[in-house]
Amino acid sequence: MKKSALVYTTIFSMFLFASCSVSKFIPEKKYLLDEVKIETDKKELKPALFNNYIRQNQNAKWFNIVKIPMYIYSASGRDSTKAINKFFRKIGDAPVIYDEATAIKTKDEMQKAARNFGYMGATVNMEKKVNKNKLKLTYKIISGHPYYIRQIAYDIKDLKIGELISGSQEQSLIKEGMLFDVNVLNSERDRINKLLQDNGYYKFTKDFIVYLADTTRNINQIDLTMLLLPYQKRKEDAPTDHSQYKVNSVNFVADDNIPRIDESTLSSYDSIQYKGRNIYFKENCYLRPKVMNNANRIKEDGLFNDQDVRNTYYSLGRLNALKYSNIRFLENDSLPNSLDAYILMARANNKSLSFELEGTNSAGDIGAAASVAFMHKNLFRGSESFMIKLRGAYEAITGLKGGYASDNYTEYGIESNLNFPEFMFPFLSSSFKNKIRATSELGIKFSSQIRPEFSRTSASASWSYRWSRLRNIHRFDLIDINYIYMPKISDEFRDYLNNMTGSNSLLKYSYEDQLIVKMGYNYTFNSLGTSVNKNPTKDSYTIRFSFEEAGNLLYAASKLANVAPKNNESFVLANIPFAQYVKADVDYTKNFVIDPRNSLVFHIGGGIAVPYGNSKMLPFEKRYFSGGANSVRGWTVRSLGPGAFQGSTDGKLDFLNYTGDIKLDVNLEYRTHLFWKFNGAAFVDAGNIWNMKENSDQPGGVFKINKFYNQIAVAYGLGIRMDLDYLILRFDGGMKAINPMRTGKEKYPITRPDFGRDFAFHFAVGYPF
Question: What is the pLDDT of residue 535?
């Protein structure tokens, strides 16, 4: 009891001290803005709709509970010149002092917003509650009666535009009987503006569209008229119909420093023609004419189409050789209502060299790795990106038993890829290639690992395609060949494998020569689009799906050729057994935004891989593992599962047995901004892996529909993220809550936590999901 009283007294004293510290920053006759709330009298008007109109909000709270950043700031002294006070003020948040004028502006903007939503008589009241030097502010929105659109009329004297608008009525956002929402009316103006600009109306803007609202005939009903204003360049000009423009020519300028576009300026440039289009450049043309021409979507002798302009910008943006691009249109003086397009392209710095040095720690073995990479973004003057990277690593191995000649681990490797900004595949039309907007990539990789126990060589080559559109990203691996070769296995290690495992064991299979020839497809959908903000302001979700298969073509060819299986077990290619399997993964993440500083993220992911035909077991590189920074964080990487498998005491190679054919992960994470560049998280993770078939080396690891839910591991923990803008450093600490690898009371360590036994620390880059 005495200890409990001491704890409570200490906590109370800390909060009392914090409150006193805040008070010194509150001027006399002023108030700390302690809380801001929004209340509405109708369910249709959700308070969240008005959050963006709040001009002054209360101090941020950690996990939406405690205003720690404000208390950190308040820990500073009054002398702002002292270094310690500067530090506290930099990482903390200054107490928000209530400002009456700002609150009134917020009230007025909320009232205007409510009326724009269709509640024309809406009013907003401010309710203030004062407690000593703290103030709680509530904005109460009284909506009144909503207004609806009774009928819609159009006053459009320009016959051509009238026909276009009339022909697109099915896409109209305004309907009779709908709420008189000004935001929807503005969206309809945007829609019509885009419609007309895609049909030749180069000089048209949405300001030429106005609405007339008549409320005199019916109570709470509006007769709406859309009015098209005539074209006037200046107020004193006579009004005329809007003109449609045609594109006369398309020209390319491979320079970003051109002051203006006219005949005298362009005459100082060198120029060539490609398929009737002029290309202007200084000194040399750093892009092939064909590449420029293929990136263009603007058509000559046709009506101006703003969608073609946007598509051209998108195509140019995919060219890594360009820093940026700009498209200008000039009216042709000799041809009325005609435009000449000039595509200006700024050259990027195409060559770069980077060097990386890193420290490694594998199960306590300390080492270092270094790599150097060269990048060329315009290798063949077609915006082809070429990368070559050399890497080397060294590690001192401890704890080896036996008479090994060396205790060192070395690794060296080289990898390279070449990316083409087009869909390179025979027999496809140019129109299809332009439509799909895919890039093609050739990848080659080689690495060699030299350990005291064995030497391992890996070589791979791949050809893949990648394309994206709006919120969808696709990747198709046409072919991916991986060859794993074991040129040397020491006698001591071979005896270890033979004494420890049977002929079909996972451990032994992982140290045999392997050939994997696979094909795969990956799909990602993000509701916010392909350019995802790391701090979204609205709810979003992401779906990922991947599928791959390996060995089917080789197996079919072996069958057709009537080739005899090696040792009556499996077919071989170049005397190497090839893997045959199918593998599918699906992943879903939902982000609930509570406010700009707090969000709740839910994630669920799973996968299954099935070996068959030429394979009795999945290659080790394709098997699932659980635990680690992106899985169930109460376990270190490759230390959980499969199922209720309890592991063994066979040393460092035991991680090979913590793999399976099926995986399930479920995560819930609350994320909050702490202070300065630091964010925090509280999480709960659940999941495990399982095998499809019984394996004597992994007892309890097989998936059974009536038992798997009792084998799901659960962990909880806290994390800190450091947001450096260009990357996020993540530190997570997880504790085991339910451990399926144990029985009895030890299965539920949440009731008797042991920090040394149940805690796992993780360092990673980026968010876990």
Answer: 62
SS3 category, 383: coil
Map tokens 């009987």 to a residue: 177
Q: How far is Cα 107 from Cα 357, in angstroms, rounded to an integer?
A: 55
pTM summary value: 0.83
- What are the C-alpha distances in Å from 356 to residues 369, 370, 390? 8, 6, 10
Strand partners, 391: 371, 413
Q: What is the pLDDT of residues 676-721, one digit of tens each?
A: 888 999 999 999 999 988 877 788 889 999 989 999 999 999 999 9
Give the model's pLDDT for residue 732.
Answer: 94
Q: CA–CA separation, 179 vs 148, rounded Å?
A: 4
Domains assigned to the chain: 2-142 (3.10.20.310), 148-228 (3.10.20.310), 246-347 (3.10.20.310)
Classify residue 293 by burial, with Cβ atoms within 10 Å: 0-12, 13-18, 19+. Answer: middle
Q: Give Rg (Cα) of the chain.
A: 33
Question: By C-alpha distance, which of 121, 112, 128 is closest to 142?
Answer: 121
SS3 labels along 19-73: HHHHHCCCCCCCCEEEEEEEEECCCCCCHHHHHHHCCCCCCCCECCCECHHHHHH
User: Tokens 């500067």 appear where?
Assistant: 86
CA distances from 700 to 647, 694, 738 (A): 10, 8, 16
DSSP character for 486?
E
What would the pLDDT profile of 462-471 be if each residue is shown by its tens digit? 999 999 888 8
In the chain, what's the furthest Cα-to-Cα distance? 100
